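hey so u asked for the seq, here:
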Amino acid sequence: MSNSLARYTGHPGAWRASDLTKEKISFDLGPRHLKAFEKIMEEARKRNLTLRTASESDFPLVEIHDDIRRIADEVLHRRGVIIIRGWPVETYTPEEMGLLFWAVGKQLGVPVEQSHHGDRLNQVIDRGGGRAYNSNIPLDMHSDFGALVGLLAIRKAKLGGHSGIASALAIHDKIVETHPEYLAPLYAGYYVHWQGEEAKGERSLITDYRVPVFSEVEGQLSVFMVKPFVEQAARNKEMTHLQRDALDYFQQVADSDEFAYKFMLEPGEASLMSNYTVLHSRSTFEDWPEVERRRLLLRLWLKLHPGDRRPLHPDLQRLQTHDGFYVSAKNGEAPQAPAA
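ran it, structure tokens below
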């Protein structure tokens, strides 16, 4: 379906900033979760396993499977976001925390490698680099790649670095109410620049298909928005005034105080969100001069297990899974996956 005038008011995922508090969207880890984590670390040390060498069958976490499914239900079918508090960041090293985060994450989905190096997690830390996750630049509301996005805070900055989230369903309702003429270009979609992540020799720098900002399949609304990637593609594939106005208005609504709920992700807290219904942002920050004290988050991207997969528009599915935004470390090619 395109150019949908459907309203999502009443859906638990169609929230605005005033509807949320940190307490309302949080899940607190308890003794049995920490005991399960201890068991993971004992096994990892005994078998000399690391984040890079552990297999998909390691650490099944059957002891806390019921809570993991509760978390999945909240993220996949309700608000689309949850904050998991109480990760033992003072007990384990950042490397060990990465293994724990990955072990929990793979119960929710299939971890996605985030670079051609085969990184199962990405370190979000200011290294003065050109990529957003290695800098302190502010980030407007955007999507990541993969069905689920997880961020675990190990250390926070000296000042700033707040997180923001916004509901795609609520943004859609706002556009229906105020500028329904923008729905057609948002549903038709935009070309996307790969920003250097294309598989060498396998595809061009810009998608040869439009990726919809909004798409509705089997009654489920999904979103995709990384405005800088769309704007860079537009240097070669020109946008109409209506397309640009629609893109700018979407971003304006998403970043507004009415829709953007802002909070500090404290050390030991992890946010987990649906990439298809929730956008996220970050404010700028001032960091510590010492590298070992700098703000550090671990980023996890997940595809969904077959039973949890979401029906997707073919071009969104192509971007997220068939084309992929990462390169497999095993064969140097973009992996072929059947669904998100």
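The chain has a mean pLDDT of 89. The first strand starts at residue 26 and ends at 28.
lmk if thats what u needed
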